[in-house]
User: Fold YecA family protein from Marinobacter daqiaonensis.
Amino acid sequence: MTEYADSGAGNADFEVWANLFTRCRAFGHPSELHGGLCGRLAAGARLEQQQWLDVVCEHMGIAPEALAGDDDIPDELPDFMADAYRTTLEELRSSALEFQPLLPEDDYAFEQRLQALSAWVRGFLEGMAVAAGERLGEAPGEIRELIEDMVAISQVEEAADADEAAEVQLNDITEYVRLGVVSVFTEFNPPEKPSSSAGQTLH
Assistant:
């Protein structure tokens, strides 16, 4: 079993994702990819494994065919991303509010954490727009207000001072985003009825 096999998408795993991106010589930001996945799932979309891998490859700047035989691409990438998909969906569905956006730990520089949050929110908004389309305009007022706030957050990438007040503000904004994502998921994903049929999607 590889070091990635049991890794989910929680806060503690950002460095694992970042290392995998480095090994793949990937473009893009790990937080933005995770945000894009969460945006799709929160808006009600469900992806088959190949669809999700296509999204991964596009974001990372990898040719899809490279997954099958490129020595520069880790063999565990498809399984890691499939596991990340399942873990993220499970966390979003959890009544215990276990969901966490994929962001760097507190020992990263403030600027890096701020940029990662901005990238995550940017990815979330893009993923949600792809999946929800015109339905976003029909969402309740509090959801539309949340989206407006997220647009503003996605555009903030620099801070004047990384003092204690800024740290508190960053933590507050992160928690606002986290709970907001759960609200969006609840709005667009009615409780599922038990089913004995097995599909080919990752959920």
Remarks:
- Confidence is low (pLDDT under 50) at residues 1-8, 196-200.
- The radius of gyration is 17 Å.
- The chain has one domain: 11-188.
- The CA atoms of residues 22 and 160 lie 29 Å apart.
